[in-house]
Fold this protein.
Amino acid sequence: MAEILDGKAVSDFFKQEIAKEVLAITAAGNRAPHLVAILVGNDGGSKTYVEAKKKACKLVGFEGTVLYFPDTISQDELLAKVNEINDDPNIDGLIVQLPLPKHINENAVTQTIVPEKDVDGFHDINMGKLAKGDNSGYTSATPLGITMLLKYYGIETAGKHAVVIGRSNIVGRPMSILLSNSSETGNATVTLTHSRTQNLKDITLQADIIVAAIGQPNFVSADMVKPGAIVIDVGITRLDDSSKKAGWRLAGDVDFAAVEKIAGKITPVPGGVGPMTVIGLLYNTLQARKRQL
Amino acid sequence: MAEILDGKAVSDFFKQEIAKEVLAITAAGNRAPHLVAILVGNDGGSKTYVEAKKKACKLVGFEGTVLYFPDTISQDELLAKVNEINDDPNIDGLIVQLPLPKHINENAVTQTIVPEKDVDGFHDINMGKLAKGDNSGYTSATPLGITMLLKYYGIETAGKHAVVIGRSNIVGRPMSILLSNSSETGNATVTLTHSRTQNLKDITLQADIIVAAIGQPNFVSADMVKPGAIVIDVGITRLDDSSKKAGWRLAGDVDFAAVEKIAGKITPVPGGVGPMTVIGLLYNTLQARKRQL
């Protein structure tokens, strides 16, 4: 049976590490890091996410603010708010929870956040820096959190074959870059696969590390995994489940029950990548504060 | 024997296509596209490159200017010149030939060129747009020229396995992104390999398309290539050769004589990727002009 990569426990460890750094900052007479999240509309899932992020901020000693706007807000009003935060010297990081209502251009919002406060790493400049291996920017929180998890467990990436499934701008693409860059958490040979990939199984069977980020429950089956491989499951989908009190349960992109018998190490869902995404965000916000000091 | 992918002939075709577009622009009473190249110092190779680019500009009806500066120019003086060109409405594209003298920070220069005139595609914003599949930016000329060559020959990339050897910011990295993006010239499954890759031969033998961009003459040998594969050779190294009048000859990263017996299609060196790089640059400059109109 595979070793469980316990994102919950590791995130607790990193929270303590970050909290120590916050103490050092405030002990020196400086204000704590401050993260602002903007939430537009009433999506239940999105609200859960931003509240979790706010709670994590409090836990590590950050100031965490959530700004709620109705889904009737115009794009101009939202951009004005973003610009106001851009100019506020008491705010280090700003994230806008996606998705946004259809009348708002998400890319316009993302690109309006100044790169220095773009702790989600979605700005073109931060994506460009990542692609060039320039670590003066910010890396998308989920890929960053995954590399922190790998590092915590001493999982070597250099020279390994990593197969990333899914080419989204938020996970798959930056993950593929991060793992192949010349850096301590990179240097892997990376194959990026996606919906147009043929013979996917032939490719995943060669992987020392699999990162599944497609949003299709149980997509990665046991016959796709090389014995001993490290399997990172980014997927998190709500499936109807009448046996649960809530009426649903969370499912990852990996058929966990079957794959854990084959893999060497594996992340569960929930409790794997999810908590590490929050750590990636906190880490970026801490960096933003430290760069300002 | 492999079919030769004739970059010289294809570049002539594209030059004619671009020239037609220039005529349409000037016939409508607008000025022709204008590309400026800055060359610092006296490197013979660099001078050859920029003069070739200038000549290509003239051929397609662009205005082409080369600005020469001594290698004693300070970084501030160079940046001031870049800013002057940024502000000049009669210049559409600016490239600064690399490498620069050691006292000048290349990245500072590259990032000072406004993204709208960065027809080399080196600016963080253009690299970020590429990584996100946003085609409103500019793609590094060599990868762009290679995709134009593939397209000219009707070589399908979708669903194919492409292996890129080398992860440079100018070729390997953007090439890997371009081939895997969701676009007409992408949708390939891409493996990016580099100096830390283990068992490279096992990987290249699976490739339908190999792009070699490492700068090591004859690195790709026949036993690394699957019969029928498409082999793109980006390498261009001067090797001493007393049998040649010049005392040297150009060598690619591929052992051409041996690999052409195995491959399905192959680019020669010279006359393959080199001329297509110039086309990539002209194409970007034409786009810059058209976006301004």
Notes: Chain A touches chain B at residues 107, 123-134, 137, 158-161, 167, 169, 173-174, 176-177, 180-182, 187-194, 196-198, 203 (CB under 8 Å).
